[in-house]
Amino acid sequence: MDKKFDKFINNFRVLIKDLGLKNSTQREIILKALFHSKAHLSAEELSTLIKKEYDSSIGIATVYRVLSFLEDHKVVSSINIGNANSKAYEINPSDHHDHIVCTKCKKVLEFFNPDLEKLQVEIANKNGFKLIDHDMILYGICAGCKK
Amino acid sequence: MDKKFDKFINNFRVLIKDLGLKNSTQREIILKALFHSKAHLSAEELSTLIKKEYDSSIGIATVYRVLSFLEDHKVVSSINIGNANSKAYEINPSDHHDHIVCTKCKKVLEFFNPDLEKLQVEIANKNGFKLIDHDMILYGICAGCKK
DNA sequence: GTCCGTGCAAAACGTTTGCACGGAG
DNA sequence: CTCCGTGCAAACGTTTTGCACGGAC
């Protein structure tokens, strides 16, 4: 039932070994918690969730350190939603996508649009840039909140 | 020589009056400093600039309060660049645009692409959203840094 | 036995707020 | 004269860091 996560965590263990570093229970718990949460969580939210559902002894400093480490190695990624003062993390999806946020209920949807990706490269080129990455968040009112 | 700013500040005074509020030297200095800076500045950077070049007695709380007030009234706007922990402000351009940032030299260019705007509305509609706004930042290596 | 990763607490940031005062209307 | 906007300092929420310890290799 957890085959997807097993595969994911195995890849992670290989990464750790390749880097010549050491793994830890904490890192795996943090990944597990994030992997099984559909939401985009801030470090604090993730820490609270972990304390409640997994292991209450994991300190928040570790959550920050691990998330930062994971982001450096592209295992997770973060977005800055609207005026929020903290980043929201998710497992880095193998398939790239962007986000659309409902300004009323704060729900976050993901989407991928190939035309958009193509257009971004064109725009970068036109400005003399070699495109590396992009952040893109759309804000609107979702179907449910429109009523 | 400062006709553009004069016009801008006059519009601002009308806005203040329309709101039934009071103007202040501080607000005008903050606007002046931001208006004449081409860069996208954080509240702290703007405060430092103002202390050095305009009036050392303007407190940082005022800068935050004024920027927040100005953003609420669409006089300025802010973006969250990459991993920075603070927002970067600019005078709200009458013409909407997005940003492309050089990850090496941190230079910020502005661009506008009508196809992109159209595409965003389409994407929102496809997901059942009524589009209100968007954040979009491209990251790449600029022409100068490519060499 | 080495170090790396951790937990804790303190520090460091960026930002907001309570308060009394001064200045614009 | 009335409030609004300000400066100051304290408070706040988020993130980072120094340190000694424990655990992975």
Automatic annotation (TrEMBL), chains A, B:
GO molecular function: DNA-binding transcription factor activity; transcription cis-regulatory region binding; zinc ion binding
CDD domains in UniProt: Fur_like (cd07153)
Keyword Magnesium annotated: no
GO cellular component: cytosol
UniProt keyword terms in alphabetical order: Cytoplasm, DNA-binding, Iron, Metal-binding, Repressor, Transcription, Transcription regulation, Zinc
Annotated binding of Zn(2+), by residue: 102, 105, 142, 145
Major location category of this protein: cytoplasm
Cofactor note: Binds 1 zinc ion per subunit. Binds 1 Mn(2+) or Fe(2+) ion per subunit.
PANTHER family in the record: FERRIC UPTAKE REGULATION PROTEIN, ZINC UPTAKE REGULATION PROTEIN
Family: Belongs to the Fur family.
Quaternary state and interactors: Homodimer.
Protein name: Ferric uptake regulation protein
Species in which this protein is naturally found: uncultured Campylobacterales bacterium
